[in-house]
Amino acid sequence: xxxxxxxxxxxxxxxxxxxxxxxxxxxxxxxxxxxxxxxxxxxxxxxxxxxxxxxxxxxxxxxxxxxxxxxxxxxxxxxxxxxxxxxxxxxxxxxxxxxxxxxxxxxxxxxxxxxxxxxxxxxxxxxx
Length: 128
Known about the structure:
Layout: H1 2-16, H2 21-33, H3 41-70, E1 75-82, H4 89-101, E2 105-111, E3 115-122
Antiparallel strand pairs: 1-3, 2-3
Helix pairs in contact: 1-2, 3-4
């Protein structure tokens, strides 16, 4: 219960970007009023992995942005990435967000069969 409350408060504060007393009280009220659901340990592990991927994606996004600025990427590819089995819709959304957050990739389509269609740019490969 405490974990859900802390997670909701962190999300609220990140969304509002305001740490005033009024905003914190509103966040506490919302965090307490939102319904809770049962989560299994496996789901918690999946959420923790997605959280780590999100934290790692931030510096990767900056690095890729500078790469695109200083070394233009001219080659484009469409690739398919497999969705991990038994993903909830929320985790699928976060996977798509993480892929799209980085400047070199964007999810174009989610296939119900369990695939993401990803548009990716790359540096032109040197011909031998």
